[in-house]
Specification:
Layout: H1 7-16, E1 22-26, H2 33-41, E2 46-50, H3 83-98, E3 106-111, H4 119-133, E4 137-143, H5 146-156, E5 161-165, H6 171-178, H7 182-188, H8 201-222, H9 230-242, H10 250-256, H11 263-275, E6 279-282, H12 289-293, E7 298-301, H13 305-308, H14 315-320, H15 322-340, E8 346-352, E9 355-362, E10 367-373, H16 382-390, E11 395-400, H17 406-410, H18 415-418
Helix pairs in contact: 1-2, 3-4, 4-5, 9-11
């Protein structure tokens, strides 16, 4: 049986309704966006087209002969996506939608939409024309460059779409779909495409580096947005994964990097990596907003596979090194929080030397302080006690030894701990 992520139920529900809004599905690479859409489209009158390398019009990809323009929907390497290609795909879908029996709705799904120049302007015109005609056709837009998707959506398509935001696979998903143990999830992370390779760790590492990390940086960041120092961005990502779970000032980061640029550049590159679903920098919890913005970031990889694939530890070695394993577990907890946090809730940290709290959740009404303990010894963390004395409304939580079991915490969404 094919595994279905929970987002699929939301998508099915929206496609069963009249096409009032477009559906936008965005998230990091290789987390199952296209697979989910294909699962939902099975058995429905629909077209799924990928922007990657569309075929020049009128050419049959197998024979090279000329064909009816209305039938050409194939793709070949080397061609560039254009607005004209997008209009052609949309027009073909319209034709099919108009001949459906009354009560049926057609679905047009377009993958990697952000690769088409001026895509949002073109989509706006086509969608508005469909709504004026009351055409029974749903439109699904997919993309793996969140900042470009968001730019187009806010500039041209405000009020015309509903988002479905997908993130990395959780522990419960990897356990259900691939029988991952908790320790395997901590080390190998939440990429479904690499799950079948974990018994051959070298092959697994090569896959993560070549099929996940490289395309994320080279295609989704460097080719799709302006980066003046690409080598710096790549090195920042590698260094950030090595320091995941640690608080590091931008000044210290500059000292670790060659051609480091200024702190504004580093902060911008870290933001790009965060939006791509790779690496984020958590800010310090503080009442004053300016203190949050000025704080040193706590680096956290958004999928622990990114740490393990670049580190020098095998699975067995990682588990045997308590210090390294502790950082990996803390990074996994941080990634889980960042990936499942609801809208309006912040994931931060707190530190007033020498006291520190690993993670702080706040949504304006509630405040939760979390300390992660992966070792076998237990003692109430001093930082947690100091924080709750300073912020009397805070709810303290210990995750791991002496508190909420790690398996339970990793299996539940952030909302559960805010209640």
């Amino acid at each position: 049986m094919t595994f279905e992520r929970h987002h699929i139920h939301i998508l099915r529900q929206r496609l069963d309704e009249p096409p009032t809004f477009m559906v936008v599905i965005a998230g990091p690479r290789q987390i199952g966006k296209s697979t989910m859409v294909r699962q939902v489209l099975a058995g429905r009158p629909a077209s799924f087209v990928a922007v990657d390398q569309p075929l020049p019009e009128l050419v049959d990809p197998f024979t090279g002969s000329w064909v009816d323009a209305g039938l050409s929907t194939q793709i070949i390497p080397g061609a560039q996506p254009t607005a004209e290609w997008l209009v052609n795909q949309w027009t073909q879908a319209r034709t099919k939608a108009r001949v459906l029996p009354e009560g049926q709705q057609y679905v047009l799904a377009i993958d990697e939409i952000q690769k088409i120049p001026r895509w949002s302007e073109v989509v706006k015109g086509l969608w508005d024309a469909d709504r004026a005609e009351a055409l029974a056709m749903h439109v699904i837009l997919l993309g793996s460059s969140p900042w470009l998707m968001q730019k187009g959506l806010t500039e041209s398509l405000a009020g015309r779409y509903e988002p479905i935001r997908m993130t990395h696979w959780s522990y419960s998903e990897m356990q259900s779909a691939f029988d991952f143990s908790l320790d395997e999830y901590f080390y190998f992370g939440g990429y479904p495409g690499s799950a079948g390779l974990i018994r051959d760790e070298q092959r697994w590492r090569e896959y993560v580096r070549g099929a996940l990390i490289h395309p994320n940086i080279e295609k989704d960041i460097l080719q799709m947005t302006r980066v003046d120092k690409p080598a710096l961005l790549k090195t920042l990502f590698e260094l950030g994964c090595a320091y995941s779970g640690q608080i590091i000032s931008y000044t210290k980061l500059q000292g670790q990097l060659q051609d480091a640029g200024n702190t504004v550049t580093l902060a911008h590159y870290l933001d790009l990596l965060s939006q791509a679903g790779l690496l984020t920098g958590l800010s310090k919890y503080a009442i004053q907003k300016h203190r949050q913005r000025a704080s040193s970031p706590k680096l956290n990889a958004l999928n622990t596979a990114l740490i393990s694939a670049q580190g020098g530890y095998s699975f067995a070695d990682a588990r045997n090194d308590r210090t390294y394993w502790g950082r990996l577990v803390e990074s996994a907890v941080g990634a889980h929080l960042c990936n499942s946090v609801p809208d309006g809730c912040l994931v931060q940290y707190w530190r007033e030397s020498p006291d520190e709290v690993d993670f702080v959740l706040s949504n304006g009404r509630k405040l939760v302080a979390l300390e992660v303990k992966s070792g076998t010894g237990f003692a109430t963390p001093k930082g947690l006690k100091i924080f709750t004395e300073k912020f009397s409304t805070a709810r303290p939580l210990i995750v791991g030894e002496g508190g909420i079991p790690l398996a339970e915490f990793m299996s539940r969404p952030v909302e559960d701990w805010l209640d």
